[in-house]
Amino acid sequence: VSVSASPRFDSSGRYIGTFGTVIDLTEQRQAEENLKESIQSFRTLAENLPGLVYRVLCKESDRIVFFNDLVESLTGYSEDEFPGKDLTSFESLIEDQDRPAVVSEVRQAISEKRPFEIRYRFLHKNKGLRHFIERGRPVFDIDGNLQSIDGVIFDITHHREVEESIKEAHAELERQYKERTRELEEANLRKKAMFDLYNIFELSRNFNAMLDYQSLLDSFILAALGRSGATRAALFLPQKPGQNDFHLVKSGGGFSLPDKQIAINRDSSFGLYIANLNRPVKITEVKDKFEISKDLSFIEYFPNGLVIPLVFQTKLRGILVLSEKESKQLYDSDDVEFLSILASQTAVSIENARLYESEKEALDKLRKTQGLLLQSERSAALGELSAKIAHEINNPLGIIKNYLSLVSHNIQDADKSMKYTKIIRQEIDRITLIVKQLLNFHRPAAISLEKINPEKLIAETLSLMERQFTHAGVTVTCRANESIPDIVAWPDGLKQVFINLLVNSMDAMQNGGEIIIDLNKTEHTVIFSFEDSGPGIEAEHIPHIFDPYYTTKSASGGSGLGLSVCHNIIKNHNGSINYTNTERGGCFIVELPIDRREKKYDWQI
Questions:
Q1: Secondary structure element (H or E) that encloses residue 88, with its range
Q2: Angle formed by the axes of helices 414-439 and 454-464, to 10°?
Q3: Which residues contact 188 (CB under 8 A, 6 or more apart)?
């Protein structure tokens, strides 16, 4: 509250009492607090604005009050050094050419009691002329007297520079556009015919590369509609090659011919007429020259249009009909020339597409024939395989025969008989597997590859042939030049390969000799070398020794299948087998991979 008191005296000066007042200031204080908060909020808002917030106090000689700290960044002057600190001094820094318009607009806004927005150039203390935009409003008291002008000023120099750059670029583009348009118009006038020919060339090239018949027809109609400006089109062609009647096969422009049974005969007077002309004909000309019969009833749907013949090798191949232009303009000589060339090129492309369709049908028939031929070849291959297997069965049968002889001579020795019987059983199993290959000819055989020791495999193979070596007077030496790792392979298949190679070496040494087997390794492979002391193989035969039925020992009954079988088995191991002549004789080299996994593989016979 607020308390005030004063003494009271009568006319004679005698004290008669004290007069006082007590005022409740609660609402006033609350209003003051609210005002402070409002002022603080306003200052916070003003500080966050990207523009300079000001107030011109018109009752105080137009003194300017700034409400944030942007005065220096916008003008180059600090608030303390701002010249004059009044509206006149601020206006003095506005570009001379802009100042009259600024003053006039502000005065007009005051007189009309409305907001204003003005743009002008301002002389910055350090940066020269800057572009400002100012938005303000005059403030009046309840009696309509001007109290102040409140507003905000933004520096839009960068924006104006961008605008100017855009304007200049736009003006330059517009200039270039006009200049280019003029050049193009002039070029079009000079070279329209050449341009049309180029389009024809491109369309022709695309059409000739387009072998799908229906796609070609669609492209042709679209090209004709696009270039001519017609609203609809209909294309009549023979439904099968060689037919004389043309039926509607394609339409364009959202048009469908009501009468689907219309047939235009190429040998009719109309067909012969347009074929001889070999150029587009106006529908009006057709109406004047021919009676409108059923086969010409289509022209009623194409008033003011064109009939365009498709002629190839002087023969009418089809007819394209176009309606009038969407622009309602008549077809001129350029249109006629363009469509005439387009039709001529398209006729060639249609014939090519038809020829391609015919070739495609012929190719399908050829493929069916090839399928039959492949079946026949497969049967022949079955015969070849049977011959191979018969050849391969001979080797284990020979071993079985030898060991049966040994069993009969050692019938009293149980251990030897058991050993020989075991070997006989193994060879019978090998014959069984060979027969399975024949049975699996029509389906890939799955062979189980397993980890084996190469030295042990060689030893087992030599044990099987020990009696044959002795009988032939052949000595065999096996050398492992270093530690040989295990490999993953089909053991029976490799035995079959090694037996074939050893038998070939024995056959080459008619009077006995020596076979040296060397085992070596590389980083990823194991190498088996079988070198004999025979005469070797003549150079002209070496490229063919792995071919089926190729043999150099036909006189002694060779079938020419042993090495072919060996090659197939090694190939299925992802390995290689080769032959070379050496100083001692002949040498087969077998190379097999080390790092193959144990599993079942599809075996290609």
A1: helix 87-92
A2: 110
A3: 195
CATH number at residue 243: 3.30.450.40
- 146 part of a folded domain: yes
Indicate the SS3 state at residue 534. Answer: coil
Residue of higher predicted confidence among 601 and 172: 172
Q: Are 156 and 132 in contact (CB under 8 A)?
A: yes
Structurally, the chain folds into a number of domains equal to: 3
- Cα–Cα distance between 306 and 14 in angstroms, integer? 130
Lowest mean pLDDT, pick from 21-25, 40-44, 212-216, 326-330: 40-44
H-assigned helices in 264-332: 269-277, 283-289
- Give all strands (DSSP E) within 381-421, no chain letters: none
Regarding beta strands 576-581 and 600-603, do their DSSP bridges make them parallel or antiparallel, or are they unpaired? unpaired
CB 336 within 8 Å of CB 280: yes
CB 283 within 8 A of CB 307: yes
Look up residue 532 and give its two tokens: 């004999």
Give 249-292 pLDDT, tens digit per residue: 888 877 777 666 788 888 888 888 888 988 898 888 888 888 87
Whether 240 and 378 have beta carbons less than 8 Å apart is answered as: no
* Same domain as 257, residue 351: yes
* Residue 295: closest CA among 303, 304, 286: 286
In angstroms, rounded to a whole number, what is the distance separating the alpha carbons of residues 481 and 455? 11
- Can you give the pTM of this predicted structure? 0.35
Adjacency order of strands within the sheet including 513-521: 474-480, 513-521, 525-532, 586-593, 576-581
- Per the structure block, which two tokens stand in for 11? 């006319």
Distance CA 52, CA 101 (A): 21
One domain, residues 241 and 356: yes
Tokens 């600090």 -> residue:
78
SS3 of residue 355 by DSSP: helix
DSSP character at residue 291: -
Q: How far apart are CA 534 and CA 513, in angstroms?
A: 7
Per-residue pLDDT band for 441 (boundaries 50, 70, 90) equals very low
- The string of pLDDT tens digits covering residues 171-218 is 888 888 888 888 887 776 565 555 555 555 555 566 555 567 777 788
Q: How many CB atoms lie within 10 A of CB 247?
A: 15
Answer whether residue 278 is part of any domain. yes
Residues 6+ apart with CB under 8 A from 182: none
Ranges of H-type helices in 308-332: none
How far apart CA 519 and CA 342 sit, in angstroms, is 76
For the chain, report the end-to-end CA distance as a whole number of angstroms.
118
CB 42 within 8 A of CB 152: no
User: With contact defined as beta carbons under 8 Å apart, do 307 and 228 qualify?
Assistant: no
Q: How far apart are CA 496 and CA 447, in angstroms?
A: 14
Considering only CA atoms, which of 248, 72, 59 is closest in space to residue 138? 59
3-state SS, residue 580: strand
Q: Is residue 116 part of a domain?
A: yes
- Angle ∠(181,184,189) on CA atoms, nearest 5: 125
Cβ(578)–Cβ(570) below 8 Å: no
- Using alpha carbons, select from 122, 91, 95, 92 the residue that is nearest to residue 107: 91
Is 126 found in the same domain as 229?
A: no
